Amino acid sequence: MSLTPEFLDTVCHALANGNARRPGVDAELREAFPGLVFKVCDDNDIPSRLKPVAEGEGFALYAINTGEHCAALTAQLEGAGGLAIGLLNDEE
Hints:
Elements: H1 5-15, H2 25-32, E1 37-42, E2 54-56, E3 59-65, E4 72-74, E5 80-87
Parallel strand pairs: 1-5
Antiparallel strand pairs: 2-3, 3-4, 3-5
C-alpha cells in the first residue's frame, strides 16, 4: 500500500477527536493497515527541519521510509512504508 493524500486523510480522520492520544492507537492502525509501520512519539522528538506530511488537531504525521536497512523519517510519501504520529504539546 502506498501512502497517498487520500490515505493521509483517512489516518487523520482516525486520529481526530483526541484518538491520537488513545493508548494502543498505533497497534490498531497497524492491524487496520497491514504491512505499514505506525509509531506514536512526542512531536518534540522529531527534527524541526522535517515538515509533516499531514496535520490534525493535537498531532502531526511524518512519513517513515522503510525501504533501506534502517527506517528513517522523510518528507517524501514516495517509498514511505509508514507514519510517525507526533503528539503536539498543548502549548504548541
